Structure formats: C-alpha cells, structure tokens
Amino acid sequence: MTDLSGIVKAYDVRGVVPDDWDETFAELFGAAFVQVTGADAIVVGHDMRPSSPGLARAFARGAADQGAAVTEIGLCSTDQLYFASGSMNLPGAMFTASHNPAQYNGIKMCRAGAAPVGQDTGLGEIRALVEQWADGGGPAAVASPGLITQRDTLVDYAAHLRSLVDLSSSRPLKVVVDAGNGMGGHTVPTVFAGLPIDIVPMYFELDGSFPNHEANPLDPKNIVDLQERVRAEGADAGIAFDGDADRCFVVDERGEPVSPSAITALVAGRELAKNGGKGIVIHNLITSWSVPEVVKENGGTPVRTRVGHSFIKEEMAKTGAIFGGEHSAHYYFRDFWNADTGMLAALHVLAALGEQDGPLSQLTAEYDRYAASGEINSTVADQADRLAAVKSAYGTREGVTIDELDGLTVTSADWWFNLRASNTEPLLRLNVEARNAATMERVRDEALALVRA
Fold it and tell me: Residue 98 catalytic?
C-alpha cells in the first residue's frame, strides 16, 4: 500500500525527487486538491529548481482533468503565489522546497484568499485520496476538462507591495541583497524598480543547484558572504532571502545580523502607527520579550501563539490581527491576506531606515533589548522523559511560572526559556532569553545540563 506519511508534512508536501515522489504523484495531488477544495479554478506557480516546471505542469494537468480552470503563473516566489491566490480569490499551489537542498521539491497549498491548507485543513484528505488513487489506478476524468492558461503576475505583485509601504520620502540607500540563487533574484529587480535604493545584487542567477551556499539564511554560515559584502561596499544594510523568498533576514551596516524579533517589533510599530495606534499583533512564544513590550508601547495588543505558520494565520484570521511575526523570520500581514511575505517586511525595514538619518544598528537597538541564546538543538533518546525532568526541576522554584502552550515555557522575573520537541527528529529545541548575557548563559547551561543528562 502506498504510504505518503514521509512526504506529507504538517503544512506542505516535501521530499526527494524522483525517489520519494515524481510527476505521476504531482498529477494525483492536482486532482485531489481540486476534489478536496471543490475549486472550479486554481492558480499554480513554481520556483527555479530543475524539477519544478515539470511537477507544476503535471499538477495543473491533474487539476484540469477534474474540470478546474488552471492559471499558471510560472516562475514566482511563494509570496507571489499568495498574492495571486489573494488577488484572484483562487486556491493555489506553489512548487518549492524552500531552503531544502537541490534534490528536494514540494508543494505549498492554499485555499482562495491565501488561506492555509495544512494537515487539519485539507492536507490529510488530499494525502488519503492520492494514496488511494496510487494503489487503484487514479481518479476518473470529468467530461469537460478545464483550460490551462498562463498569466504573469510579477508586475502586479510588485505594485501591490509598493502600495503598502511608502518609500517616497526615503533618503537614498545602498543595500546588498543576497538572493542565494533563489526566487529573490526574480522578484527583487521588479519590486525595487524606481525606489531610491541602490541594490547591490548577490547570487541573483536562478539556479536550483545552489552553487554558492544553501538558500537558508537562518544558518549563520549562509550569510557570511552577505556580511562581508555589506562591509566592503559600505552599504546601509544587507538583506538575504531564502530559496522561495518568503522569508527575509537583515544585517546592519556593520554586517551584524539583526534579530528577527527586532524586525518583528520594528514592523509591528509601523503597522500599528498606520492603523491609528491600535490593533492586535501576533507573535509566537519564542520571540523576544521586546515584541509584546513594543506592541503595548505603540498602543497595540500582543497575542502569543504556538510556533508554526498555521497557528499564526489561524489566530490572525480569528482576531483580525494587523500583523504577525515569528523568530524564524516569517512575517504575516493583514493587508496581504494574512499570508507571510519577507519582501514586504524588507520594504518596511528600508522605509524605517530611510526616514531617519541614523544607521540601521542604531535604529534596531531600540528593539533588541535582551540577551538571547538562539535555538540550541539536543539529540535525546526520550523527548517526553527529558521534558518531564526539566519541568520537575523548575516546577517547585519560587518566582517561576510554567506553561505548556507549546512544549515547556519556564519564566522568571529576569529570564525565560522554552523547550520544544521536534516533530520530525529526536531533538529538543531550547531558546533562552534574559535581561543580561551572564544570566542568559547561566540559565542556558543549567537547562542544557538537565536536557542532556
């Protein structure tokens, strides 16, 4: 029996091509997507990986054979696909494996208006249908298949983003952009055209073999080239995008990384100002204390969620939040159908920088108030046992509170840490923050000793 549990994840499809899945499976996913969503029209896009055009076309064929009209938008970033889904009010599918190595590919799916499709919102049903059809000869085609047409959405996508952030009064800025041979190389030239920004491009050539470095800026080794180039150019800032360009990472004029929590706080303040100084801002539980502080200082209401884009998007839809941010550098906007777009976050950062005369390091220092450990992974034999041991060790301490919204969060007056189990590997992930570096290091080392005992 076909078992797709290895490639159908919580939020998307992802695996090695052709070992784990291929165009035959992509066609079945297209048919299942139409059946589960009930769509009579969909939009499909893809990234620059060598396998992406063939997989996307097979998906389109499967969808059309079930009677859906398919608009292919071709090469695009994931947030460009969300733009197409939102502006055309159609369910969509994006073929990308984001920051994964070259041999991987995947599908990120959404309903009309860029609403997420995850394990509990249709993906489980899609997987069940594909498994059934793989073993039983596939779905029956309808009498009238849908038409497959092409449309370029890049110019409209860029115009929509520029309409949301005003850079007209910005001073001229010099910005190094590392696209990592991913889709940022396709979108940045059009989005930034005509703005008072001198772009210094790095690795803009679309190449799904990632010849220069992995397209994963969350790993410090992958932004070393950007940091060096920012310093060499005397640039005002540096921006790195991941493979499908839905996340952006920022470095300041010194080449120092700016925490995604600081970016979340900065953008939250701007979105609240745009909304008359009120509104709800979503943040996950491993973002810095500075995020809810800045939200409150700017008149807003912070709401804390579990880690993961489906939880953020769900909470945004439920609360009418104007903005949401994660420490993984995903940024979500009400004005972008509650979807994540690194490009819009980048425009906000550059607008904030260009509206004043100081350097980026000075601007972001206001939002970077605490000492953080970053995420530390530990391989453990029994995740539940180690979590229980940590809970037991801290549970009776005076002045300490514990909550289990997502893993284990332990909070004191001067520090907090979160310990979460990985869903896919035998790992525990630790994040620590404190009012100063010495306290952070002490708490980090104590918690790690318990985890690794």
Answer: yes
pLDDT digit string, tens, across residues 143-157 = 999 999 999 999 999
**Which one of 77, 85, 98, 290 is the catalytic residue?**
98
Strand pairing of 323-325 and 280-284? parallel
Q: In 3-state terms, the chain is what percent helix, strand and coil (to 5)?
A: 40, 25, 40
Determine the Cα–Cα distance for residues 49 and 42; give it in Å rounded to an integer: 22
- The burial class, CB within 10 Å (0-12 / 13-18 / 19+), for 152 is exposed
User: pTM for the whole thing?
Assistant: 0.95
Distance, in Å, from the CA atom of 192 to the CA atom of 243, rounded to the nearest integer, reads 19
Structure tokens at 62: 């499967």
Which helix (H) or strand (E) segment holds residue 310: the answer is helix 309-319
- Distances, alpha carbon 174 to alpha carbons 104, 195, 228, 229, 280, in Å: 34, 11, 15, 12, 33
Q: Which residues contact 18 (CB under 8 A, 6 or more apart)?
A: 51
Ordered structural domains, the chain, with CATH:
13-152 (3.40.120.10), 156-255 (3.40.120.10), 260-365 (3.40.120.10), 371-451 (3.30.310.50)
Written as one letter, the residue type at 30 is G
Of the CA atoms within 13 Å of residue 143, those in its CB half-sphere come to: 0
| Bridge partners, 15 (sequence order) | 105
Report whether pLDDT(26) > 90: yes
What is the SS3 assignment for 104-130?
EEEEEEEEHHHEECCHHHHHHHHHHHH
Question: What is the dihedral sign for C-alpha 272, 276, 277, 283?
Answer: negative
